[in-house]
Amino acid sequence: MNPARPTWRSAGRTQRGQSRPRNEDALLDCPQGGCWAVADGMGGHRHGDLASEWVISSLASLSAQGSLDQRVDAVRQRLQGVNRRLADARRTGSATMGSTVVTLLLDNGRAACVWAGDSRCYLWREQRLYQLSRDHSLLQRLMDEGQLSATQARAHPDARALTRAIGAHASLRLEVLELRTRPGDIFLLCSDGLYQALSHVQLGLALSAGGPQQVVERLFASALRAPARDDLTAIVVHS
Known about the structure:
Layout: E1 9-15, E2 25-30, E3 35-41, H1 48-60, H2 68-91, E4 99-107, E5 110-116, E6 120-125, E7 128-131, H3 138-144, H4 150-155, E8 175-180, E9 186-190, H5 192-195, H6 200-207, H7 212-223, E10 232-238
Antiparallel strand pairs: 1-10, 2-3, 3-4, 4-5, 5-8, 6-7, 6-9, 9-10
Helix pairs in contact: 1-2, 6-7
């Protein structure tokens, strides 16, 4: 039997962007199980909303039992299963379906972030903002390889193209980052529609605004000051 887990406080919100006929983002906010996730259906493909819902549904049924390592393995298995399901749909002649995902697991002083794509996980610790996940995008690859400066890479016509996503390829490579948590840590999971609308300074100001619901409301208020073309999704977790 696992020792009693602390109760984490969290809040989440998702909203359709003005350029979309439907919201292709989805979220999982499960503090009682120490599990949170954001999925963003791949723009430009049919059924992006269905792909993101499949991702979240697969994670929503995860057991809260077991060690953090066991739960990370379970997340991997579930996401690999969704990837196979989306690949099967593509082989049978359906349109390409895909989704990003970023998942956060917390358990007894440890955290694990599992992701594919460009939805992000941030950590707000001691008044500093850290980006825990690393985008799986052409933009990030161009900058990593030193081919282009950050400004030049952002201007590339395919800069937002993803290099990894659920359903994008028959073989799925997930990335995992683990760390020790500290009292007062605040985590932010979000889709690209939210973080592209806000600077790191704005993200930090919002994350220091108070409880999870207050932070979510401030993030959306800041992002919606300009027309939100893309869907917006955020989950804030106080450990």
